[in-house]
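tool=predict chain=A
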Amino acid sequence: MTKIVDVRAKSPDELQGMLLDLRKEQFNLRFQRATGQLEAVSRVKLVRRDIARVKTILAERARASASNA
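tool=predict ok
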């Protein structure tokens, strides 16, 4: 699980990279679940929440930069 403080400290490029990694992990977890090989069932929920955190921070920053422009 990623702490929100750690996510907010990252640059937009780091957040995009993190989002890409999380989506790859989510895909792999879905694939493992479909083939019956998934052992860490709770990881699916944690990855989904981490993706939401990253997307929320990116959206907040986009709104903040749009309102400042």
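The mean pLDDT is 93. Helices lie at 4-8, 12-35, 41-68.
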